[in-house]
């Protein structure tokens, strides 16, 4: 009876025409009997599905595209964030009143962005209990110490300075339907076993600026048997990331800007994506490296005690790799090991896309790029992206004749169809690399060159507004192995050609 009453109430409230709730039949052609069903029946079908499957019904037709958002009579997507004109007490009162009037109807997505004082932590816990009672599926909790509207550099600085004062929260959450969880900006009580209350349904876990120990992280992962994706960003207390065998279904691991992390160990056997950005790791081990299809490795600084062999050793097992991004340090390690005839990373048979993140473009860096293609052949490579440094000075001028040069690769670009060089300034080594790629790629279709916007910082003779014309002339004179290759020179980096790892 309660179900019938709810359906009648919703049907009455839907009397106003809504394009996303149309009762019209499908367009000419085959009869779409699902779309012809009344709204009440279609919404009832969606109410029986988990959130992610309800969203996927949008692919059936345009009539279904946003229908899942109306599957509950009450709002199922709720966003709570502070308003500058409201006091904390007023916001708490409004939220409590809204929840009281709403009742315990199910919630699909709940986002809470809040900066509470210590005395207001009980309010947060009360909202957590309400969300759990409504079987929330996607929960985002941000208790950052500074407003999200603050610019990135100021926000990072103030959060780091106030880390010791961050709120400590015993995250006791019992939603049986929770599949996605994002936590940000507080201390997670390490001794509290609360993760056991919700973890058996959790599939995606994002930890941003969370202060927790390595033992706490491991305890969380042990109790998340269906976890598929783990993202850890700017967790500055974390010293190592250990993924136990218990994380059977983990396929995606991302670790970004965790300053103290020096060790990563993954015992899970199903990892497909590994993305790391931070200080050079002392040790890392991936049990199922042969299954990896997507790898991003970038380090902004070297650690003298680290063995170069340890840094690139897992690269030798990446037989299934399809997308790879590596930094200048990784290229240097590969070139050094290859020169000593050490084996273990000789071939990437299935690599389709490669991105090179160059901190510098001196003679040694150009040699490292050549060394990579010499020691790590990529016979199926189709897309090559080169992120060039933004420095206005040409390092090849200062270091000319000081570094022994590696010879350009003799081949290996037969399948290359797209090359994009971002931050191209026409420096000697940049132009040489462009020439080699054009001359060696017989099936190249697009050669995209993105100059720095506004040519800022250029001090050459071409910096008087004619730099783009000068670059265009120089590039047009380079010999091309592919007659159909088009050279695209622009100052605007459009989304037409973007690497998979354009955002990590």
From TrEMBL:
Residue stretches making up the At1g61320/AtMIF1 LRR domain: 171-482
Region (Disordered): 1-29
Source species, domain of life: Eukaryota
SUPFAM superfamilies: F-box domain, RNI-like
Biased composition range(s): Low complexity: 13-27
A Pfam family of this chain: LRR_At1g61320_AtMIF1
The protein, known as: At1g61320/AtMIF1 LRR domain-containing protein
Protein source organism: Dendrobium nobile
